[in-house]
Amino acid sequence: MGQHGPGIWPRSLELFNFLNVPEVNDLGKPNPPVRSYKPGTLELMNDSSMVPHMEPSPAIPSHTPKLIGQQLLDAVLRRHLERFSCFVETGTELRSFEQSDEGIAAVLAKNEILETFHTKWMIGADGAKGVVRKQLGLTFLGETRDVAFVTGDIRLTADCLDRKHWHRFGVFGDLGVSLRPADEAGEDGWQFYLLGSNLDMSIAQSEERIFETIASLIPTEIAFKKAVWASEFRADIRVVNKFNYGRVFVADAAHVHSPTGGQGLNSGIQDAFALGWKIALVAKGLADKSLLETYTEERLPVISEMLEVTTAILNQTVGTGNMTSRGNPKLFMLGINCRFSSIVLDEFTTPVEGRPINAYGVLDEGHLEAGDRAPDAPSLLHIRPGESDQTTLFSHYRPWYHTVIVFAPSPADATSDLGVLEPCDKSIVRSAVILSSSAPAVHVACPADLVLLDQGGHAYFAYLVEASQIKVFVIRPDGVIGAIIHGAEGARRYFSKIFVDM
Ligand SMILES: Cc1cc2nc3c(=O)[nH]c(=O)nc-3n(C[C@H](O)[C@H](O)[C@H](O)COP(=O)(O)OP(=O)(O)OC[C@H]3O[C@@H](n4cnc5c(N)ncnc54)[C@H](O)[C@@H]3O)c2cc1C
């Protein structure tokens, strides 16, 4: 697999942190500056940035996109799964499946020996050519563009190639190469991209011809060691019409798009995160199966809009030959929302008939709606006996439970709103009262799991709450604001759409 799709955007880093996999952020490297040379020379043309810049803010702790080769990401995630006694079985192929009301019978091949595996649910993350989407008969509408490139991992050294830059040689509309240092692969490891209308795609089959082509574009002595893998890619831009059929779902295998925006893998991560909590609740008998239908409802507009963004970047890259045209802040994926979802509830926003969906791009500090990403807030102080540590909101959001946050002038003001949560098990709904920085930091008995003082004022600022107001937010397990409500009645209305017993 090698480096493949290494760009991890800030929203995905947030999701990995919610999952307790901080290694992705720790091992990932910031994008190096792109160094371009005058064609046919080693003369510097310019240095530029491959990604947009975002100022850090308390609401957005992960603001730097990171690069981590897919091979390493894969190893990190497998190691994490093993902590839950979940092991990826390699060398096992899904050949076909049949589903009924009760479950799925999947035919697997292990060393060409077939066996039938029974399961209640199935999620196809088997790539664009995978069998799951095809067998479900989902349409895969879109286009294949006449834009192709050869990419792969290579090991080489040359005096002119420092490892602090992403080097670009040649003319990209015509014939060019980019070399990105891939330190995890070793001091001589690079991910290469060869592209341009004069590129002969068949070189992907020959290590020697790849070496020759790169050498023809960089006028210096290069010590080539090995092409670890190489492959030809065409820009495919497609999405399914539906993300599930019955008990079978597609995540990642639901879409394919031009790699210019670096969004494919990130979108797949988010598909899985958006689906996981819903399947968990239904599998435990806590939610009705109809909750699963909202997976398509919430993801299809996001992916459709993402395809427009990445296709625009592709068009610009092809038109100008400039791969640094990825300046669009939407790529950070922090504005992704599902304001349009039938299961979110907002008592503070008046619905506007016919408002266009803006699924990929709402990130406005002055506005927050149900369906938006829940912001972080640092510098919160626990005001329980024996707990005086500072904490952040994000350290309390987890994918296996809802978090109900009551902003209130005092714990007593929040008590009646929290009563509605009494029948809910702590493993699926937790609660926090957040007091404004002007409230006294004294312990008062309160049924909430947490009472936090917003010492830095970041929570009240990010959630747009006045110090004297009572405002309740329900944060879904996927870190999305499920509801913004006045109190208990709103919480009952929101949870009645999620849980069977509410
Ligand atoms: C050059 C390039 C750069 C990219 N850069 C980025 C980037 O920076 N950021 C980003 O987000 N995305 C990027 N992408 C896109 C990203 O690589 C893909 O979106 C992602 O790999 C798709 O993941 P997937 O798991 O669906 O499919 P795949 O990566 O294709 O993996 C599918 C897996 O399923 C297995 N499989 C298939 N069929 C079966 C079967 N029947 N039974 C069992 N197993 C099966 C395969 O063996 C494979 O392991 C890039 C893509 C390319 C080509």
UniProtKB/TrEMBL annotation:
Task: Tell whether Kinase is among the UniProt keywords.
Answer: no
NADP keyword on record: no
* Positions of the FAD-binding domain: 63-308
Q: Which UniProt keywords apply?
A: FAD, Flavoprotein, Oxidoreductase
The record lists the membrane-crossing segments as: none
Q: Name one GO molecular function term.
A: oxidoreductase activity, acting on paired donors, with incorporation or reduction of molecular oxygen, NAD(P)H as one donor, and incorporation of one atom of oxygen
Question: Where does the record place a coiled coil?
Answer: none
What InterPro entries does the record point to?
FAD-bd, FAD/NAD-bd_sf, PHOX_C_sf, RIFMO-like
Tell me its cofactors. FAD
Question: This protein is called what?
Answer: FAD-binding domain-containing protein
Q: Which source organism?
A: Rhizopogon vinicolor AM-OR11-026
